[in-house]
Design goal:
The chain contains three helices and six strands; from the N terminus they run H-H-H-E-E-E-E-E-E. It is an alpha+beta fold.
Length: 139
C-alpha cells in the first residue's frame, strides 16, 4: 500500500513509525508521503529532545532498521552543525515548524572543500540532500 493512501490515518507519531516501516518503497514516495502527513509541532511535541550531548541540536530516533533511520531533530534558532557526512545514507529533511538551510559540499582531490548546493525549507516542506553522482562527501 502506498504511503499517501494511509496519510489520513496518522494521528500520532507512533502511527507514523509503523507507517514508515510498512510503506516505504522509494525516496520520492517517502518525501511525498511525509509532506501529505501535514505533521504539526503538537503531534511531535512529546518526542522533542531539546539537547543531545555531543550534538548542536536535540535528536530522538523515531524509526531505526537496517535500511532506514528516521530522526526527529530539534534545532534552536540560529544554530548550525559543522560540515559532516552521513556515509552512504541519503539526507531528507522535513521542516515541521520554522526554517532550515542545508548546504551540500564535496571534497576536492587537493583536500579543499567546495559548496555544491544550498537548499532551504520552510514549515511543511521537505528537502533532499544530494551529492554529485550519488557519492557522499567523506572527510
Amino acid at each position: 500500500m502506498h504511503l499517501g493512501k494511509r496519510v489520513k490515518e496518522v494521528k500520532e507519531l507512533e502511527q507514523l513509525q509503523q507507517l514508515l516501516l510498512a510503506s516505504i518503497e522509494d525516496t520520492h514516495e517517502l518525501i511525498h508521503g511525509i509532506e501529505e502527513l501535514q505533521l504539526t509541532r503538537g503531534c511531535v511535541e512529546p518526542w522533542i529532545v531539546e539537547e543531545t550531548e555531543g550534538f548542536p541540536y536535540g535528536r530522538q530516533s523515531v524509526v531505526k532498521t537496517e535500511e532506514v533511520e528516521c530522526i526527529l531533530i530539534y534545532w534552536k534558532p540560529r544554530r548550525f552543525s559543522p560540515i559532516h557526512d552521513h556515509g552512504a545514507s541519503l539526507g531528507i529533511v522535513h521542516v515541521i515548524d520554522g526554517y532550515v538551510t542545508n548546504e551540500d559540499f564535496v571534497l576536492n582531490e587537493d583536500g579543499t572543500v567546495k559548496k555544491t548546493a544550498i537548499r532551504t525549507g520552510t514549515s511543511g516542506k521537505t528537502i533532499l540532500s544530494e551529492t554529485p553522482n550519488g557519492k557522499p562527501l567523506t572527510l
